[in-house]
Design a protein that fits this description.
Elements: H1 2-11, H2 16-28, E1 31-32, H3 33-40, H4 44-56, E2 60-65, E3 68-73, H5 76-89
Antiparallel strand pairs: 1-3, 2-3
Helix pairs in contact: 3-4
Amino acid sequence: EILEYIADLFKGFADPTRVHILSLLLAHGELCVTDIAEKVNLSQSAISHQLRILKQMDLIKFRREGKNIWYSLADEHVKTILQMGLEHAHCD
C-alpha cells in the first residue's frame, strides 16, 4: 500500500508540463491559472487539467481569493523532492 502510494507520488513528477508547473510554484510561491498558462505557454484549459492531476496527487494546494484561485506547493516535502530533482539534474 505504501509502495503504491510512493509510485503514484512519483508519477506526478513524470510529466514535463507538471514538473514545469511545480518548478514555477517553487520559484514564485503562489500563482493563478492565468499566470501559469502564460509562463508555460499552454491554454488555461490544459493547465487546469494538469493542476487537477497535481491536486489529486496532493502535490499542490489552492486557496480562493474572490474569483481567483491561487495555487502553491502542498508542503515542504514536495518542495524538497523537487529541489533534489533539480539539483540531481544539474550534477555532472
